[in-house]
Every structure is written in C-alpha cells, then in structure tokens.
Design goal:
Chain lengths: 340, 202
C-alpha cells in the first residue's frame, strides 16, 4: 500500500538521527589505528546492535555488516513510496548492480570462475544475477544488458564489438542509467525535480567533464568520448566541452563553473581519486543545503538515502584503509565529509 | 651414554679420531662461511638502507596511492584488473654470490596499459610501470637478504650442532675407548707378569 510522502519524509527525519556525524567519522573512526579500535568507536553509534552479533572482527565481516545496514535502511526508506518515487529510487539503486554486472563481465572475459550469487547481489537488486552468471560468454551477457532494467543502448554493443573494451560497456550502462534517472525525475513535481537534479546534476556534469578531459590526457578518440557523454546539462554543456579539444585545457576550464573547477583541475592533474572524492563532497554539500529547504518532500527522502550511501562508502573506505595500512591522513582524504 | 654403543677396539679408535679431525675441519670451514655470510648480510643491509632511503618516499607514496585508488574505485578495480589480458613477465636469474645462490629479478615484458581503462586505474598502472625498476631493485635486495639470512641460520645451526653435540660426543667416545684400551692393556700386562713369575718359579 502506498503511503503519504509526509509519512515517508518523517521516517527519513528519524533515519537522519541514526547517521554518524561527519566530525565523528573524520576524527574518531578515520583516526583509528586498528580494526578493533575502529569497531570500539562504532559501538558508540547505531551500529552497536549489529556489532554485538559479530563474532571475530575481520574486514570481510565488517563489509558484510555495513552492506546489510545500508540495504536495510534503503529498504525501509523506500518502502511503500508512491509508484513514481519508488521507481526513481529503484532505478537510482541500479548503480550498485552495474558495478556487479561489470565484475561478472570481466570474469567472463578473463575466464575466471564466478563467486557465489550473494557476493554480487544486494537485497534491493533489481537485476537477475543468476541469468548473467549463467551466460555462456561475454557476447551473450552484453546482449542481456540491452533488456530491462539496465536497458543499455544498442549503440554501445556496436562500440563494444569495435573496441572490445570494458570501459565502453561501463560508460554505456552509466549513460543509460543517468538518462533513465533524468526521465524519471521529469515526472516529479517542479520543486522536487529541481532538488533531485541539484543532487544528481553535479554527478552527471562531472562525469561528462571527466569523459571530455579523457581524450586530452590519454589520447583516446574524441569521437568515442563524444558517444559516451550523458546527454544532459545541469551547469555544463557537455557538447560544448567536446568542441574545446583543439584549443587547450584553459578553454575547457573557462566553460566549467567555479564550483566544479577544483574537480576539473584534479582530473587535469591526473588526480582521479581526489576528483572523485571532491565530487562526492560537492554532492554532499548540495544535499545538506536542500534538506532544510524541503523537509517534507521526496527530495528529503532521496537526500537521506544518499547520505546513507555516503556513510556506507565512508565506513568501507575506513575499514579497508586500516586493514591495508593506510595512514589516517590518507584515509581522511578519501572520506565524503562536509568539513575538511 | 653414547659410549655404551662403542666398541673399545684400536681400529674403532683410529676411525673415531679420523672422524673427529674431519668434523673439526668442517666446523672451521663452516665458521668461515658464517663470517662471510655475516659480512654479506651487513653489506646487503647497508645497500638496502641506502636504496630504501632513496626509494622510500616514492614507493611508499605509490603504495598509498594504489590503496587509495582501490578504495575509491571499489569492485571496479578488480573488474578492470581481470579484463587486462597482458601480464607483467619477470624472470628470476639465480647467481652465485660468495658461494650462495641469490635471485636477481629481470622484467622481460611490460604490459601495455589500454586507453580504455578508467582514468584513475590507468594512471595507477602507468605509475606502477614507471616505478617497476625501483620495485624490482628493492624486491631483489629483500629476496637476497632473505636467502642470506636463511643460509646463515642453517649454517649457524650446523656449527652449533657440531660444536655442542657432535664434537663433544666424538671426544667422549675417543676418551672412553682410550680409557678402556689402557685398562685392557694394564690387565693384560698384569696377567703376563703373573704368567711370567709362575714360569720362573717352575
């Protein structure tokens, strides 16, 4: 049964209080020297109930736990939403399925055995992973990507046949994914649509900037890059970016709004990791600006889902960083927090 | 006591003495080898200290960068790594150094980094490839050090076993046989004396 958006938004307000404050993530969790210390700090948060059921502390177990918490939160936040909103959230979450599909495809290409189904599948997954796993070869798997819910464009299959590279397929999937999200956001009421695109817009813009900068830095074909661009303009006209190849990077920078310049600069300096983190921090800032403006709306619910996702990514980054011996400074530089 | 298994004969005593001489000679040679190994390890460590001082910054930075990329890209890192067909090929040459065979690493084939990797992963791959010489150098020194340390450990154990177990045991056996043979000799001498004095009275 569909529930009122006001009820769902109230639930999202409650979930906001479960989120770990940025300062705590940055200082305490990000400064932990061992997984045990990290877990002891996590006991001070809403993860304590789940942690009490955890036996031995290991990276794999912690990642499973974070994944479970994230999936449960998303399931609760999207439960019973009116159809158009629910569709939007379901499509938004396909980003996680795309990562898993790409992993399956690379295993098919390299001939490596697949892992168990649960490794690829999230509880909210909309994709039939058993079908992908059973595909006899990469070609047949790629043909399966043309169907719903991923609905990749046929043009991408041609590009794959010509270039035989994973990147083309990944960009094709992402392009189809963002196009669908843009279409779904068009169906939302005016103010909601604007707020949702305030969150998604920078992500799309910056992805287009990175695609457009690619040929300049790495020398691959501008025509290939042009076919991978997402046909949407939030603050940057993607097609105009492509016309700046012959002039230099400076001409491209002039087209990029001030807000995106640190990200674009990082791309140009080949600091892709920094650029990705800066992009997510930028989106975080947008979300934190939108939340107080639209407290009873779908934009609020979607903002909280994004914050849950960022928390999930932060906790995984910290756990992996600690177990691989990364310094606290490095770990902190990877975190999606609003006050660094 | 080991001497319980010993035959107190002159032939056995001669064999034992030869064995003892050989073992003591082996011990002296192994002690020389140990000293040589210690000096080789010292030299390798000094070289390593210099190399590490030189490489530390760039290699540790590269290592941290690799982890950051892995965290930032998540499962995509594995996706693209699996799809990479060309592999790095390294040949290990074994060369003798001060009587010890140590490995020397040589890169025979560097994989081509495809244009179609995402920017961050491609950049990491290029950085790793350009630092490959340094990585091989450091790995070579560390492997050599490990081989030398293992050889030193084995040599030390053998020298200790010779010094604390085998040589004392042989010495004990020699001393036991010598004592037994002296006693036999004295007893035989006494019997001979008794025999000779008896025949004189007759």
């Amino acid at each position: 049964m569909d529930i009122d958006i006001a009820y769902a938004a109230t639930r999202a307000h409650a979930y906001r209080t479960y989120l770990i404050p940025s300062r705590y993530i940055k200082r305490e969790l990000g400064g932990s020297k061992s997984l045990d210390e990290f877990v002891s700090y996590l006991h001070m948060t809403h993860y304590r109930d789940k942690l009490s059921g955890l036996g031995e502390v290991s990276l794999e177990e912690l990642i499973k736990l974070f994944r479970t918490v994230f999936s449960e939160r998303v399931a609760t936040l999207s439960k019973g939403l009116p159809e158009k909103y629910h569709d939007f959230v379901r499509n938004y979450l396909l980003i996680f399925d795309i990562e898993s599909v790409m992993e399956i495809l690379s295993e098919k290409i390299s001939g490596k055995p697949h892992r168990e189904l649960e490794y690829y599948r999230y509880p909210f997954s909309a994709v039939d992973f058993s079908g992908f796993l059973a595909a006899p070869n990469p070609e047949s798997l790629i043909m399966m990507l043309l169907k719903e819910p991923l609905a990749m464009e046929e043009d991408t299959v041609d590009l794959w046949r010509r270039y035989k590279t994973l990147y083309v397929v990944e960009m094709g999937l992402l392009r189809a994914y963002y196009v669908r999200l843009i279409q779904l956001s068009e169906e939302l009421p005016g103010e909601e649509k604007e707020a949702i695109m305030d969150i998604l817009g920078p992500e799309i813009d910056i992805m287009n900037i990175s695609i457009a900068i690619g040929p300049m830095l790495y020398g691959y074909s501008p025509s290939l890059a042009a076919r991978m661009l997402i046909p949407y303009k939030y603050k940057v006209p993607a097609s105009a970016l492509m016309e700046t190849y012959r002039p230099e990077a400076r001409a491209m920078m002039a087209l990029i709004p001030e807000e995106y310049r640190p990200v674009a600069r990082s791309f140009l300096m080949r600091e892709d990791v920094t650029a990705r983190t800066l992009t997510r921090r930028l989106i975080l800032r947008h979300i934190l600006t939108i939340l107080p403006k639209l407290p009873i709306s779908f934009a609020y619910i979607f903002g909280i889902i994004k914050l849950c996702e960022f928390e999930y990514r932060n906790l995984i980054a910290i756990a992996k960083g600690i177990s691989l011996g990364l310094s606290s400074e490095r770990i902190r530089s990877l975190l999606i927090v609003d006050e660094i | 006591m080991a001497s319980g298994y010993v035959l107190p004969t002159k032939i056995f005593l001669m064999e034992l003495r030869k064995k003892l001489k050989l073992v003591e000679f082996s011990k002296r040679i192994l002690e020389k080898k140990r000293d040589s190994l210690q000096s080789a390890i010292k030299t390798a460590m000094e070289t390593m200290r210099e190399v590490i001082k030189f490489l530390k910054r760039s290699l540790i930075e590269l290592f941290e960068y690799a982890i950051s990329v892995a965290i930032s890209y998540g499962p995509r890192m594995r996706t693209y790594a699996l799809a990479q067909r060309e592999r790095l090929e390294i040949v290990v040459h074994w060369i003798a150094e001060r009587g010890i065979v140590v490995p020397v690493l040589e890169v025979v084939k560097k994989p081509r980094i495809p244009d179609s990797f995402p920017e961050g992963i491609r950049d990491l791959a290029n950085r790793v490839l350009s630092s490959l010489g340094d990585i091989m150098k450091l790995s070579g020194i560390l492997l050599k050090l490990e081989v030398l340390l293992r050889e030193l450990e084995v040599t030390n154990r053998i020298v200790n076993t010779l010094d604390k177990v085998i040589i004392p045991d042989l010495k004990e056996k020699v001393s036991y046989i010598t004592t037994m043979l002296s006693e036999f000799f004295i007893s035989e001498l006494s019997s001979l004396r008794v025999l000779l004095s008896g025949s004189a009275e007759v």
